[in-house]
Amino acid sequence: MTWEDIARETLTVLFSVVFTLILIVIAWFVMWRLFFSKIRFVREIISPDSDGKKNDISKKEELRNRREKRRRKDS
Where does the record place the region Disordered (predicted)? Predict the structure, then answer.
């Protein structure tokens, strides 16, 4: 085995790893856009607030739920 063969195999492995990581990132982004962002539970796990308070997403959802309850009571 020559140095050229070793370099070629090393580059092949390196590019394979980089390509795989790029595919994983793209797949995660697509799954987030299509599926995960719709589920409150997943959002809470992925982006927890550091001080234990509710994050902005759950605050917005809570406000929206309150508004919907008020509308139902009024009608």
Answer: 48-75
Bin 52: left if φ > 0, else alpha if -120 < ψ < 50, else beta: left
pTM of structure: 0.48
Question: How far does CA 28 lie from the centroid of its chain?
Answer: 6
Q: What is the mean pLDDT of residues 1-6?
A: 91
Name the region of 55 (left: φ>0; alpha: ψ -120 to 50; beta: rest).
beta
The one-character DSSP state at 49 is: -
The predicted structure's pLDDT at residue 13:
97
**Of 46, 26, 24, which is closest to residue 37 (Cα–Cα)?**
46
Sign, Cα dihedral of 25, 42, 72, 53: negative
